[in-house]
Amino acid sequence: MRDQRPNCVTLATLLTPTGAALIVTGLWLLFAATHLGMSLTSLRERIGARRFTLLFVVIAQLLFALLVLGHGGLRRIGAWTFFHDVAYERAMGVVATVGITFVVAGVIDYLRTPMVPLANHTHVTPLQRVTRHSVMLGLSLWGAAWAARPSQWVDVAFFAGFPAFALVGSW
After folding, report:
1. Could you tell me the pTM of the whole model?
2. Is the dihedral of CA 124, 127, 133, 135 positive or negative?
3. For the segment 69-115, what is each residue's pLDDT rounded down to a tens digit?
4. Shortest CA distance to 127 belongs to which of 145, 144, 110?
5. Which among 158, 139, 169 has a CA at the least distance from the CA of 69?
């Protein structure tokens, strides 16, 4: 008995590995442009701090979710393997673990920092003395470690976006 379903053509069947990586890169650029662009405009003064914060958070969350879903949907297009050396893999695992440690420490430390909205204190914590934005540093290390050991080009585009975004955002 023959399969009666029509041939389905999906976006994934039309894309090359490079095309998928370019889509993920485009999603990173859209996220960065809105995230950084909104913080550079006078929109905050025009609509008020609370409305601006709500709008900023909603847009950032939606675009980041789109980025993650786009990566997840495109990551099985093609295969490009990097060399698999056990020592190299372990070293990148250590770098990724250090990165996640910075992220967790930064989240725990955040409420005691002067960066909290409407905070009136200026206490500098020991973690801030090492790095002002430990979450961004941690995400950069984590992303760089995963970008250095990809299985597809789309993974390189996705994970390399974290250190690139942190670098652009720190300017």
Report:
1. 0.72
2. negative
3. 988 888 777 665 566 677 877 888 899 898 888 888 877 766 665 55
4. 110
5. 158
